[in-house]
Amino acid sequence: MNITTPTLLLDKEKALRNISRMVDKTKRSGVRLRPHFKTHQSVQVGEWFREQGVEAITVSSVHMARYFADHGWNDILVAFPANVLEMESINELASRIKLHLIAVNQETVVALAKGLQHPVQLSLKIDAGYHRTGIPASNYAEIDAMLALIQGQDKLQFAGFVVHNGHTYKQTYAAAIRNIHNTSVDQLQLLRERYKAQFPNLQLSVGDTPSCSILESFEGVDEIRPGNFVFYDITQQHIGSCAFEEIAVCMVCPVIAKHPDRGELILYGGSVHFSKDVLVQKDGNAVFGRVVELTDKGWSEPLEGFEVVSLSQEHGVVRVSAEQFDKYNIGDLMGVLPVHSCLTADAMRGYLTTEGEPIDHLSGVR
Amino acid sequence: MNITTPTLLLDKEKALRNISRMVDKTKRSGVRLRPHFKTHQSVQVGEWFREQGVEAITVSSVHMARYFADHGWNDILVAFPANVLEMESINELASRIKLHLIAVNQETVVALAKGLQHPVQLSLKIDAGYHRTGIPASNYAEIDAMLALIQGQDKLQFAGFVVHNGHTYKQTYAAAIRNIHNTSVDQLQLLRERYKAQFPNLQLSVGDTPSCSILESFEGVDEIRPGNFVFYDITQQHIGSCAFEEIAVCMVCPVIAKHPDRGELILYGGSVHFSKDVLVQKDGNAVFGRVVELTDKGWSEPLEGFEVVSLSQEHGVVRVSAEQFDKYNIGDLMGVLPVHSCLTADAMRGYLTTEGEPIDHLSGVR
Predict the structure, then answer these.
(1) Do A132 and B346 touch (CB under 8 A)?
(2) CA-based, 20 to 30 A from A11: which of A187, A257, A358, B267?
(3) Measured between CB atoms, does A92 come within 8 Å of chain B?
(4) CATH architecture of the domain with residue range A12-231
(5) What integer pLDDT is reported at residue B125 of this predicted model?
C-alpha cells in the first residue's frame, strides 16, 4: 500500500466479526437487528450486513436514507426527529421504500399529516433518561395527545416507541450500563401495557452500542439499533464495550516533524481528519487517539509511551517517552486508533481496507 | 432561498470588507499579504482576494496547493512541515508554480534535496513560543546545520523564516497579543541579523489572525499570512479580533424538536456540520455557537437567552430562556454563528451566499 496522506484503514475481517457477533446475539435473543448505518455510511459495508441477513436499517438523515435506498435498502428508519422542511424528499422516499420516521412533538405530527402523500411508519421518540431529545417516558398526557393526532391520519401508521440511551456513553461499568438499559426497558414496558390494547403490534426499539455490546439478551424489546459496534473505537474500549483488538478502523498518518527538545512528534493528521472528539482517560488525561504499530496485515495493540495530546486543523501532536522517541522518523507512517469512529469516518470520506481496497463513504460521494 | 437542511450562509459583502481592511493595512505597512486559504478553501472566495490585488497565498496541504494552482495561483506557500511522502505531487507542482515549502528538521531537508526535480523555495519554521512545531528561535546550532544542508542544494532556495503564533488564540487582551507578536518579531530580527550577510534577501513571515487583526502596522517583518479573518467567528470575537458584525459566515439549521419541560430546542445541525470545537466563554460556560436571528439580507447580532450547549453527530441542543422559548417553532430556521469557521467550512463542504449563490469548498469537490 502506498499511503502518503492521512488515510482511514479498515480491517474488514474485524468488521465482519463485529457484525456477526451482533447478528448472532440478536438471533439468540429473538429481536430484530436494525443497525445504525450513520457510523460507516458506506454501501460496501452495508453489503457486509446484508450478507449476514440484515434487512432493516437505521440512518440519521433523509439524505442518508436516500443513499441507502438507492442501493437496494427498502426498510429504513430515520432515527432523528422528522425534519418537516424536507417533505419533498420524504415523499419521494415514502413512494418507494418502507420509510419509518420519528416524532417528538405534536407540531411535527400535524405537519407530516398535512404534507405526506404516501404512508410512513411513525414512532414516538421516548426520553428514558438521556435528556437529549424525546418525550419523557412518564408524560402520558403528551403521548396520548400525539397518538390521538396520529390515529386520525391515513398516511401515518403508528409503529411504536424508540429510545436512545446515549447516557451509557458516560459509564465505564457494565453494571451501570445494564441498569440504564433495564430502566429504559421497564419504562417501555409500561408504555406497551398502556397502549397494547389500542396498538397490539407496537414495537419497542432501543439501541446504543454500549448496552448492545455488554448485554447478552434483550428481553422486553423488539428491536435494537446499535451502529458504532461495526468499527468500535477507543471511546467504546474505555466504556468497556469492546477490546482494543475489536477496533476495526485505524488512521494512518505521516510523521512530518520531530521535536527532540520536548519529546513530540508532529503528524499530518488533524481535526479535519479525526474530527475533534476527545477522550478523557481514567488518569484524567485527555487524548485524541491511541498510537498503534502498523503491521503487514493491520495494526498492533496500543503502544505505551505515546499520547496524542492535541489536534489543530491539519496537525496532530504526539507526546513520546524518551525510550520510544527514536522509533519513528520523518516520513514514517503512524497508526492512530480514533476516539470516535463515526466522526472520523465522516471527516475522512472514505476507507482503504487492509487488503488495499478503497471503500466509499457517503460524505465522499456527494 | 429554500433552505431545508443545515447550510453555511456566507455574507459576501462582509467577507469583501474583511479582505479589503487587511489589504489596506498591509499596503500601509508595506508588507506582503499572503493570506491563508485553508479557512475558505474556495476558488470563488480566492477570486475576491485576487480582485483586491493579492497574488501570493498560503495553504496547509499539497492537495490544497494543487487545487489553487489548478485555478491560476502560481505563488503558493504550503505552511506545514513538508510531507516528504508526497514528493511526486510536490515535484509536479514545483514544475509549474513558484512553490514554497517549510522544514523543521534536517531529515526533511535531506529528503527534499534527494527527491526534488525542480527548484522550490524553502523556509525554516521557527517556534517563537507557541510550541506546536518549529525550531526554537534560539537554537542557532540547529538552524546553522539546516542552512548548511540547504546551501549545498541547487533545488532548495532558502527563502527565510516563518512563524505561526497560535498562542494568541488563548488571549483576550490586545496588549497580550501585541506582546506575543512583538516578542516573535524581536526573535526574528535576531535571526535576520545573524544570517543577513549570507542571505541578504531572507524574508520574515508571521501571521495569526488575532495579531494581524489587532495590530495596525507590521514593522520588522516582510509578510503576514492570516487566514481566518476573511470569515472570522465567535472565537475571534471572544479574543477581540473582530466585532460580531464582521463575522461573515452563519450556519442555518432547521428546528426539529422542542422540549418545553426543560427549555431546549433541538436543531438539525451537529458535529458533522459544525465540527466539534468549543468556546469557553468568560462566564465559564462552554458554547458550540451563538444564536442569531435570520433576516432578509443576512443575520442579526447574537440573541440573548439562547445557548448552544451541546452537539452530537447530527443534533444540536439549544437552551432557551422562558421568555424566548416560543420565538421558534418546529420547521423554523435558526441562525448560529460558528465557534471555528475554518472547521465548519471544511465540514460543510460548500457555502450559499446571502444572495443565493452556491460557492465551492475544496472538500466538496474531491
Answers:
(1) no
(2) A257
(3) no
(4) Alpha-Beta Barrel (3.20)
(5) 97
